[in-house]
Amino acid sequence: MRPVLPEPLRPLSELARNLRWSWHPETRELFQILDAEGWRAADGDPLRLLGAVPAARLAALADDRRFRRRLAAAADDLHDYLTGNRWYQEQPAGLPAAIAYFSPEFGITAALPQYSGGLGILAGDHLKSASDLGVPLIGVGLLYRHGYFRQALSREGWQQEHYPLLDPNELPLTLLREDDGTPSVIALALPGGRSLRAHVWKAEVGRVPLLLLDSDVEENASGERDVTDRLYGGGSEHRLLQEMLLGIGGVRAVRTYCRLTGHPTPEVFHTNEGHAGFLGLERIRELTADGLDFDAALESVRAGAVFTTHTPVPAGIDRFDRGLVARHFADDAELPGIDPDLVLGLGAEDYPGGDPALFNMAVMGLRLAQRANGVSTLHGQVSRQMFAGLWPGFDADEVPITAITNGVHAPTWVAPEVFRLGARRVGVGRTEDALTLGGSERWDSIAEISDADVWELRRTLREQLVEEVRERLRASWRERGAGTAELGWIDGVLDPDVLTIGFARRVPSYKRLTLMLRDRERLTRLLLDPQRPIQIVVAGKAHPADDGGKRLVQELVRFADDPAVRHRIVFLPDYGMAMAQKLYPGCDVWLNNPLRPLEACGTSGMKAALNGCLNLSVLDGWWDEWYEPDFGWAIPTADGSGTDEERRDDLEAAALYDLLAERVAPRFYDRGPGGLPGRWIEMVRGTLATLGPKVLAGRMVREYVGHLYHPAAESQRALTPDAARELAAWKARVRAAWPGVAVDHVETVSEGPLNGTAELGSTATLRVSVTLGDLDPSDVEVQALAGRVDPADRLTGTSAFPLKPAAAPALDGRRLYEGSLTFDRTGPFGYTVRILPAHRLLAQGAEMGLVAAPAEASGEAAGVLMR
């Protein structure tokens, strides 16, 4: 039953249903005015609040002119936000008319619990920042009726899970309906004549629609109804069905939504991790139904596709038994017009070290996308190495996977107190622009804020965290079976004047939740130091099937339960967005100690930094990229080849203790005039001014638009059906002829003798004899590759330049290419040559994974020319 609002209050419904309220302080304040106690009871969820406000209170507010004026202003502001031009609309013509963004989870707000961790929070921040910038995104995901699990602790500290049932009618969602009012239905064919049907629910994320597919519909059999029961739950076939519904069903949901609403059809499809990779197969099916053959359709689909990988380890990728995949793509199942062997080939691990029995979702994602990226500079390097087998013959640096470092949505994660301090100094508009668009010039005003104001802000946030921790800790102990008489000690937990360290994240082993416990006596001394104590707030969930992770949680909980230290270290169960929004601002230091380089990006430290919290982290993910000693600390990595796991952890834990005792705590407690820690405050300023503009999701989304979305849209437009056929035929011809392509001879011609040395700035002429077999010069590019030579005799820091045909083909068919080589750097210098396929519709030379390089006997194939 939905509440009936008085006519003057009807705009409250629209404000509650558009999730912009979750990052718009003025709208949240309006709901607090509506019923402050009810707002707290509803955990800050406007829809729950509206369902609980007494009719008498609504009637009184309907007659309250001041409230009605404020409501009208909020409604007008939302209308302007949804309809006015923003950053995207002010860019030059040619950007995509729309982009479809697929992800298995979305963390928008705690009121829509459809996320488990960093991947979902990143996806939610991507949507919110796209909305703020006016980027015409359509989000696509699944609606999990049980969401992700809620975490509690047993008396012994063992993680316990429960799955509350979510009713979509009680969530900020609207059912997508046909023109006749019936629910829109998305259907997939399953083996044996069965069907998987789904309804589509829509969430309004500011300007961005988020479509969530829900298989819990009456027309489905019981097994199919449960496909969208839990996020990351079930066995292999269950996960496969979820990912087929997300990818294939998601494309069909987008088509239905655009048909019903007139929303522009997406020109670009962005796959956020491999879970949604099947979307490319559905797009191929659409094109083959319109008359293209599979190969041409594949080229067209690749042109407009972007794939983002988030995992730095093969174990983090979804892989399915090939037989299971083949059964679901047979003639009596989904995509019956497409040869199952072609589908299996897209996910085949047909490279050294691959498993031929498995179907790899990330490999399929890369093969179905012309553009791919990792989520930090270091993760881009790791990804290029991890997937190098797909591009044999190329150095890892040339694997076509770029990097766009993640960012966080500042309006969601910046505490209201931080925002208000900025607004007082530079104005609301300038502060909003700084948080949305970034730009260092917008953050320079932080220097104008006095030390006293900065320190007062930090203490206020720390004090709020202490209150939040005590409240949550008391509730947790009651869940663990403790009575009120046992809990008096909680009133003394944490101290608002003590250095506060935060550590909160999922609990896979590589994040090392318990590294801080390696030397418990030393940690205890740090916690209880009489002059410079520290206190630690820890939170995190282990996957329900990960008993190893649960044991780590229990180990930490048992240490924190010790009466000797429990006032200085706490573990808070059920880590989620609502907790995080209190935790990040209230901590002075954010701790992160993963195994390098297994943290692809790690955005929790970014959220902390936006609130003036300093980072203490292993150089991994984003911290490896942007760390500076002016505003944080780096934990040394013990990654020597002779260091075993136990010794590595001992060394890195010892380094952590040393940093805390010798650098972090002294800096915090070193007080100057007025009792202020001047050097600490300068580090807070450095964090905000230097990292603030960099860690924004607004910066991230603008980079996606410029580096990936815009080029993908241009490629998609260029791949007309005829162009797609041409490109597919050309690729088939080149692949067939490539065994006949070779570099036959290389020689260097110089005015003076080289003798192993040359002068800086001098030049030499390269002459290269090549065999092209059945290919023409227009099919290839012959390149010289020059750069430094490292101690292992490998070229590094190379630059490539094309060589040009120098004469007609010789009688034996060989062709001569020439070009000038300039010696532009000192030290060991080397070069080589190679032949690559070349076509105007290729995004990069390595795209096809084909290269011909000199054999050992082909002359001066490569050599050190300058020392």
Q: Main traits of this protein?
A:
867 residues, alpha/beta, ten-stranded mixed sheet, six-stranded parallel sheet, 17% strand
Q: How many strand elements? A: 27
Which structural class fits the helix and strand makeup?
alpha/beta
Distance between the termini: 81 Å
Largest sheet entry: 10 strands, mixed
If you average the pLDDT, what whole number results?
92
Share of helix among residues? 25-40%
Radius of gyration: 29 Å
DSSP strand content: 15-25%
Please report the number of helical segments.
Answer: 29
Q: Note the overall shape.
A: globular
Low-confidence stretches: none
Organism: Streptomyces thioluteus
Enzyme class: transferase
Function: Phosphorylase is an important allosteric enzyme in carbohydrate metabolism. Enzymes from different sources differ in their regulatory mechanisms and in their natural substrates. However, all known phosphorylases share catalytic and structural properties.
Protein name: glycogen phosphorylase
Overall description:
With 867 residues, the protein is of the alpha/beta class. It is 39% helix and 17% strand. The protein has 29 helices and 27 strands. Strands 1, 2, 5, 6, 7, 8, 9, 10, 13 and 14 form a ten-stranded mixed β-sheet that branches. A six-stranded parallel β-sheet has the order 17-16-15-18-19-20, with helices on both faces. Strands 21-22-26-25 form a four-stranded antiparallel β-sheet, with no helix packed on it. Strand 3 and strand 4 (159-162) form a beta hairpin. The longest helix is centred in the middle third of the chain and has 29 residues, at 451-479. The N and C termini lie far apart (81 Å). The model has no long low-confidence stretch (mean pLDDT 92). It is an enzyme of class 2 (transferase). InterPro entries: Agluc_phsphrylas, Glyco_trans_35, Glycogen/Maltodextrin_Phosph, Glycogen_phosphorylase_DUF3417, Pyridoxal_P_attach_site. It catalyses: [(1->4)-alpha-D-glucosyl](n) + phosphate = [(1->4)-alpha-D-glucosyl](n-1) + alpha-D-glucose 1-phosphate.
